Amino acid sequence: MALHLNDQGARIEGRVGAEECQDLLDWLRQHERGPVDLAECEHLHTAALQCLLVFHPAVNTLSKDPWLNHVLAHLERVESVELPMQESPT
User: Fold this and answer.
1) Residue ranges per domain, the chain?
2) In angstroms, rounded to a whole number, what is the distance separating the alpha carbons of residues 57 and 15?
């Protein structure tokens, strides 16, 4: 299993597949702010990534995957930007 979940935090290792996303989601519901350790994470199924993006837990250690780190870092910047409202066409 690539997920190690307890009250002190989550450690995500190796490759996280779709079958493990429900466990991650349940843990994040109880521990919304983490912490999460991604140091040994090699791959996240998109559903697991979406869980992290929705709950936005504290990430203590980033992944070795530069793309994943870029996505998580980008989220930090996007949250503070106010997007203009577009009027709907009539």
Assistant:
1) 3-69
2) 19
Report the distance separating Cα 19 and Cα 65, nearest Å: 21
Q: Check residues 9 and 90 and name the one with the higher pLDDT.
A: 9
**How would DSSP label each residue in 21-43?**
HHHHHHHHHHSTT--EE-TTEEE
User: pLDDT at residue 81 above 60?
Assistant: no
Q: Please, are residues 3 and 24 in contact by the beta-carbon 8 Å criterion? A: yes
**Token pair in block for residue 9:** 């935090």
Average pLDDT over residues 55-67: 88
pTM: 0.77
Contact between residue 42 and residue 15 where contact means Cβ atoms under 8 Å apart: yes
**β strands within 1-90, DSSP E:** 3-6, 9-12, 14-16, 36-37, 41-44, 59-61
pLDDT for residue 51 = 92
